[in-house]
Design goal:
2 domains; alpha/beta; single chain; globular; 6-stranded mixed sheet; 5-stranded antiparallel sheet
Length: 340
């Protein structure tokens, strides 16, 4: 049965964070992707994938407030809706040098559940009188429960990885409360037995928290498609708000098409290139483009040409959505573009 596919691939065309100018990929590397981009109709869409997901689930995106990512992803990590105000307080490694203080996220920390629980317990004991509670629901994603609006705005973790944090610290009317608190938490973690043991094992220290995604749980989420596929915790949290299920993303487009039989439309979030630009890893990015070309782009081009796919909406994280229908095969005057 013909279907419509919304394909979200964060980082696919986000080249601005690589250290040096990025050349276009040779056409031979991703000819199907080039074909899709050349023949698509493009229109503006949020470049940040979190904002895009909120928009697709018909949830408001306010210009003067954080996206309430914490309250949504907390549901994916086993939390229950409670009407409270939540902040992501993710464990990070902070590394000072002469240029500033640089952040590495939990992917490089390999945090054990027991370590997360021990550090969060120490935090809660220290800051109980401040009315704060830290829940380590997932080893890599921690949640700070607040009594109400903290009076700060924050920067998403993904935008901060590998960068000097000093220009991306929380800001707003209450920053004078939060900056000292973060410093105190760093000192608490630095001397904790968990980190002394990690130092003995030559592991990077869990020596900081990154606050972001502040807000109360959104309401009124509507599923953007009949079938949802992905591992992204925000996708899973928003789906829970909308009372719909999320299927693990298939390894190959053919497996998705089999799973989607009978669905009028599907939304698939692929994580393949999410961190490549943030890590400044051009080699990984080109390798991942080749993987996606084999597993997804080649199939999508063929299905559009044969009518197995009615429409494709490709969101590559560059501030555009690229829409194609079966008519794309007749746009032969549009030459294929290289990815980049």
């Amino acid at each position: 049965m013909a279907t419509t596919l919304h394909l979200l691939i964060p980082g696919l065309l986000e080249m601005g964070r690589f250290d040096s100018p990025v050349p276009a990929l040779p056409a031979a590397t991703a000819p199907a992707l080039g074909w899709l981009l050349a023949r698509a109709d493009a229109r503006p869409a949020p470049a940040m994938m979190d904002e895009l997901l909120f928009q697709l689930f018909k949830l408001p995106v306010l210009a003067d407030a954080d996206l309430p990512v914490a309250a949504a992803t907390r549901l994916a990590d086993g939390g229950e809706p409670d009407g409270g105000w939540w902040l992501r307080a993710d464990p990070v490694h902070l590394r000072p040098d002469l240029r500033g203080v640089f952040l590495a996220d939990a992917r490089v920390l390999a945090i054990e559940p027991a370590e997360a629980l021990a550090l969060s317990a120490a935090f809660n004991q220290t800051f109980a009188e401040d009315g704060l509670r830290l829940d380590a629901l997932h080893s890599d994603r921690w949640y700070l429960r607040l009594a109400g609006d903290p009076g700060i705005r924050t920067y998403p973790l993904l935008e901060t990885i590998g960068r000097d944090i000093n220009s991306r610290l929380p800001y707003g009317p209450n920053l004078r409360r939060w900056h000292p608190l973060l410093t105190e938490a760093q000192m608490l973690f630095h001397g904790h037995p968990v980190n002394r043991a990690r130092e003995e094992r030559n592991q990077p220290l869990i020596n900081g928290l990154w606050l972001w995604g502040s807000g109360m749980g959104p309401t009124g989420a509507q599923p953007p498609a009949a079938g949802l596929y992905g591992h992204d915790p925000l996708l899973r949290g928003l789906a829970r708000l909308a009372n719909v299920a999320v299927t693990p993303v298939p390894d190959h487009a053919r497996a998705w098409l089999d799973s989607a039989a009978g669905e009028p439309d599907s939304l698939v979030v692929l994580e393949t290139t999410r961190y490549d630009a943030a890590d400044g890893d051009f080699t990984a990015w080109t390798d991942h483009i080749a993987e996606l070309e084999y597993a997804w782009f080649t199939c999508c081009r063929r299905w559009l040409q044969t009518g197995a796919l009615t429409a494709l909406h490709l969101y590559p994280g560059d501030g555009q959505v690229y829409t194609l229908t079966g008519a794309a095969r007749w746009r032969f005057w549009r030459r294929s573009k290289a990815a980049g």
